[in-house]
Write a structure and sequence with these properties.
Outer Surface Protein A, domain 3, six-stranded antiparallel sheet, 6 strands
Amino acid sequence: MSDRHFSETDLARIRRWCTAQSAKLPADQLRITCSIGARAVDIGEERPPWEGSASDPWTFMAVARLTYVKSRGEWSLGVSDSNGDFRRYTPLPTGSLTSLLNEIDADPMCAFWG
């Protein structure tokens, strides 16, 4: 049994979204992935090591945090600041998973991808 507060269906949707975003990018230079916690999923970019072998791990930098609010049955969206901390994304702080993923993709405030 999982200790996650969100469904495997939602997690699969987030992973598919990351894969679709990565398909638009040069695979050897950048990929969009997620890091999964019990209550939240961080979405970010991974880059290969500057030096070293191809087997060295890529570096993950989170740009968004999706947190499932179980009591309300909805997701909240946070954006990473320059210190790696997350603050509420005020233009669309909560909503359906689809609407928040669309917001990250569109990035109308240039808060996620710059």
